Amino acid sequence: MRVMIVAGEASGDLHGAGVVRELKARIPDADIFGIGGDKMQNAGMQLVFHVRELSFMGFWEVIQHLPLLRSVERTMAALLKARKPDVVLLIDYPGFNLRFAQVAHREGVTVMYYISPQVWAWNPGRVRKMKELIRKMFVVFPFEVSIYEREGIEVEFVGHPLLEVLSEPQRRPEFCKRWGLEERGKIVGLFPGSRKQEIERIFPAMLGAARMLNRDQGAQIVVGASPSLDIDYLRSFLRGDFPVTIVQNATYDVMKNSDVALVTSGTATLETGYYQTPMIVVYKTSILTYLIGRLLVRVKNIGLVNIVAGSGIVPEYIQWKATPANLAAETADLMNNDDRRKKIAESLRVVRERLGTPGASARVASAIAALA
């Protein structure tokens, strides 16, 4: 069996690796190739392009890199014709993947889509155009099922792949001992994201808030660093005027043991919500991207944790509101209000329940293998 997979971002690499492993377990000699990252390659996929070449954030940034994206698209189209895969599996990354679905459809190749484009936020009308291109959708949120069923697209809720990687975190005594923290003191976790573009715009505001919280509230500041980031790059943002602990490869320990977390909007909000940790969702991007987004976004909240919950469980500070002073004030209120923190933590239980059950990768791989 020959399978082409296209995952253009780090999160797609993580979730795609599970599918590659499960496919190889079912069909050891399966020929799997396409766009991915180190995790997919280690699982047994041949990389044609690496995700680090294609991971851009924001409308303007994508426009700047259009020549590169078009070149990659042409190369993948030529490869599709030459190697004739039995199925193309597209993982998230909608700007590129929905165009490539048209290419695969014209070539008569079966197209499956894993981790739906956020059509419910951007363009619900796009679903009708997907009907003729996509053989089956594998969605990771239960509310997405009805969106595709209404248009007659075969769809399956497979659960969220995060459930396959979320680990049991260290308990607070062990966590504090390991990182030199005071167990009884308040801990504020900072999660500035995994892309340099995000970090450059969001991390300074988080650190500004952390400086005030450390000075005025005695908060202990811990940064949960993405494994893909260079620690020295993160340290370059620090002035050394207050203590900051940077933790890498133990992100879930930080999420679970933080009293309050400042989290860049994205998958990290779901991860933090899974551990029922009170948080503040933060997001800043270029002015042009933000203004275009305001015109196009159709949902009230942008934080996935709030979207999945169906209500604004946790506060969101977006663009101009994401100032150090605003973030510090909101965090301080949460730190000092035990009842509010408990209420948020309890409300986040619904997010954990709506992620489904583990085994998303196996369900997707079984459907692909059935084509063999």
Explain what you see.
Helix 4 runs parallel beside helix 5 and helix 10 packs across helix 16 (324-336). This protein has a seven-stranded parallel β-sheet, with helices on both faces. Strands 10-9-8-11-12-13 form a six-stranded parallel β-sheet, sandwiched between helices. It has two domains: 2-159 and 356-369, 3-Layer(aba) Sandwich (Rossmann fold); 172-354, Rossmann fold. Strand 1 (2-7), helix 1 (10-26) and strand 2 form a beta-alpha-beta unit. The protein is an alpha/beta fold. 48% of the residues lie in helices and 17% in strands.
**What spatial order of strands do you see in the largest sheet?**
3-2-1-4-5-6-7
User: What is the total tally of β strands?
Assistant: 13
Number of domains: 2
What's the overall average pLDDT, rounded?
A: 90
Named CATH topology of the largest domain: Rossmann fold
Distance from N terminus to C terminus (CA atoms, Å) equals: 6 Å
Q: Largest sheet, if any?
A: 7 strands, parallel
What is the secondary structure topology, with strand pairs?
Layout: E1 2-7, H1 10-26, E2 31-36, H2 38-43, E3 46-50, H3 59-64, H4 66-83, E4 87-91, H5 94-106, E5 110-114, H6 119-122, H7 126-130, E6 136-139, H8 144-149, E7 155-157, H9 172-179, E8 187-191, H10 196-217, E9 220-225, H11 231-235, E10 244-248, H12 251-257, E11 260-264, H13 267-274, E12 279-283, H14 287-296, H15 304-309, E13 316-318, H16 324-336, H17 338-347, H18 349-354, H19 360-369
Helix pairs in contact: 1-19, 4-5, 10-16
